[in-house]
Write a structure and sequence with these properties.
It comes from Aureococcus anophagefferens (Harmful bloom alga). By secondary structure, this protein is of the alpha/beta class. About 40% of the residues lie in helices and about 20% in strands. It has helices at about 15-25, 55-65, 70-75, 85-90, 90-110, 135-140, 155-170, 185-190, 205-215, 235-240, 270-280, 295-310, 345, 350-360, 370-380, 390-400, 405-410, and strands at about 5-10, 35, 40, 45, 50-55, 75-80, 115-125, 145-150, 175-180, 220-225, 235, 245-250, 255, 260-265, 290-295, 325-330, 365. A six-stranded parallel beta sheet has the order 2-7-1-8-9-10, sandwiched between helices. Strands 12-17-16-15-14 form a five-stranded mixed beta sheet, sandwiched between helices. Helix 1 packs across helix 16, helix 11 (about 270-280) packs parallel to helix 12 (about 295-310) and helix 12 packs parallel to helix 14. The protein is globular, with a radius of gyration of 25 Å. The model is unreliable at about 195-205 (pLDDT under 50).
Length: about 400
């Protein structure tokens, strides 16, 4: 089978999630499926050694148990900090070196696999500065590209067209397109068009698919409705993002919280309690994550009391996504004007409240950031798949795989 290169029109469109679903589908049709992240940026150490690979490589290898391929071949080129400067200074020598690594690694993975999937980074042009854009790499290894875009009709096609032109310039064929994170109420219209009985209007169906077939000669492989849960971060994600430390409730670090769950508390306790009660009773789809300054002892005490009451009778050893379990981030960021005599007092919570938090084992973490900075960073954070979050990995595969036309994918 000709290798498949999963590319995207821009960052954060769900490329890794689509790769997970495609790999899952292929493993049901082939005994040995290989995966490569030719050019990686965010890398991690594996096997307790000095070997470093792109984090997506660790995810795919461990989740699918790819024992037939080596880590080094799955992540041939890593782009660490300052690599771009080194490349510009080094010129053509680094280009030849990284191209040789990618070609050799791909050859070894293909030799041991019945099907091979490569995943790009960002949009098709990412990596151009080092001579290894997604389009370049797909051309080197002779892969067909599956393009992933967010969207509807017009805006999605505009983005797809810009990326297609670059692929065409490199002589790379587009195998098909997946539209991701589509509003659920728009899926049928995009995929099948409006339900019409009039023959005169039947030609208006399958808007994006018809445009792709007529203009590009490739199929629309899937239209995936948005699933908000997949965009939610875990407390573990936020702990790393904020460089925070749990003071209690560490066992709940795998629970998920979305952007709409965040609540920066700057109001009086009675308003905080009304908000917490509303989220528990009226918005059961929301699991609140409160952010406040560590000196708001009144808010922390109210949260602890509310947490204790709300978790009464709840099996906290086996929390599910449908269970309410509020959490809190305490910020120690200093005020603009701080009296040195009260500096420690202004940046810590009362010791007896910390003792109550530990006794209740409520999920609470502390960060050195200020409340505004922490709230903004959390709101702008995009949660990525990682091997430790198997609940979200399984949910992604279960959601995506049924929406991808594997017959069309393999027929190409």
């Amino acid at each position: 089978m000709k290798p498949l290169f999963i590319a995207a029109t821009r960052q954060h469109v769900g490329k890794t999630t689509c790769s997970l679903a495609i790999l899952s589908g292929l493993t049901q049709k082939f005994d040995r499926v290989g995966f490569i992240k030719p050019v990686g940026q965010q890398h991690v150490a594996v096997d307790g050694s000095d070997v470093r690979v792109d984090k997506d490589v660790q995810l795919m290898k461990e989740y699918f148990g790819m024992e037939h391929v080596a880590y080094e071949d799955m992540s041939p080129v890593i782009v660490p900090r300052n690599y771009t400067k080194q490349y510009v200074d080094g010129g053509g020598s680094l280009l030849a070196e990284q191209k040789a690594k990618i070609l050799a690694a791909t050859a070894r993975v293909e030799a041991s696999s019945e099907a091979t999937v490569l995943e790009g980074t960002g949009h098709v042009g990412v990596g151009s500065i080092i001579g290894a854009s997604n389009a370049d790499v797909a051309a080197w290894v002779g892969a067909d590209v599956v393009l992933v875009a967010n969207g509807g009709i017009g805006s999605a096609f505009d983005e797809l067209e810009m990326n297609r032109i670059m692929l065409k310039d490199k002589g790379v064929r587009v195998r098909g397109v997946i539209l991701n994170k589509v509003r659920p109420d728009k899926v049928d219209m995009i995929r099948d068009g409006p339900r019409r009985t009039s023959r005169a209007r039947s030609h208006r169906s399958d808007y994006v698919g018809r445009a792709l077939r007529d203009r590009w000669g490739c199929p629309l492989l899937g239209v995936v409705p948005d699933l908000p849960f997949l965009g939610k971060a875990t407390l573990d994600n936020y702990e790393k993002l904020l460089e925070a430390e749990f003071i209690s409730g560490q066992r709940h670090r795998d629970l998920h919280y979305g952007v709409s769950d965040l609540a920066c508390v700057t109001t009086a306790v009675r308003r905080f309690l009304r908000k917490a009660n509303y989220r528990e009773t009226e918005r059961k789809d929301m699991r609140p994550l409160f952010i406040t300054h560590c000196t708001r002892d009144d808010v922390l005490l109210a949260f602890l009391a509310y947490y204790k009451r709300s978790t009464r009778g709840l099996d906290v050893e086996h929390i599910t996504e449908s269970d309410w379990l509020g959490a809190m981030v305490l910020c120690t960021g200093e005020c603009e004007i701080t009296d040195p005599a009260f500096q420690n007092e202004d940046n810590t919570s009362l010791p007896y409240l910390m003792e109550i938090a530990r006794a209740y084992d409520a999920p609470i973490m502390v960060t050195k950031m200020g409340t505004v900075e922490a709230t903004n960073d959390m709101a702008n954070f995009t949660a990525k798949m990682h091997i430790g979050d198997r609940e979200r990995i399984k949910a992604a595969i279960d959601h995506y795989q049924p929406h991808i036309d594997f017959d069309a994918l393999l027929a190409g």
